[in-house]
Design a protein that fits this description.
alpha+beta; SH3 type barrels; 5-stranded antiparallel sheet; 5 strands; 35% helix
């Protein structure tokens, strides 16, 4: 003898709303913004202000590791004295650290 089970047919459910669909993507963007984008922007703004504040007599280190003292500041470059009678002109963007006057 066969038993026939009558199960209800699955109901057609409505698709999830647009908000529910986009919520994970929105949460990922928020996490990226607060943990990656915002701190990087703050570091870049701090670096730019440090470079703009560099003045004659400040000791600096370039991105290439050259240590020197600023003897002249131009719009896009600085003149460094790295040793007696040895001066180098470097781009301001090459400045990695400004330690101020000694």
């Amino acid at each position: 003898m066969h038993t026939l089970l009558l199960l209800p047919l699955p109901q057609a459910s409505e698709p999830p709303s647009m908000l529910v669909t986009m919520l994970p993507l929105l949460l990922i963007f928020i996490v990226f913004y607060f943990f990656i984008i915002r701190p990087q922007k703050k570091r870049e703004d701090k670096r730019k202000s440090m470079i703009e504040a560099a003045k004659k007599g400040d000791k600096i280190v370039t991105a290439g590791g050259v240590h020197g003292t600023i003897t002249q500041v131009d719009d896009t470059s600085v003149l460094l004295q790295v040793d007696t009678n040895v001066k180098l002109r470097v781009d301001k963007n090459a400045i990695a650290n400004v330690s101020g006057k000694d």
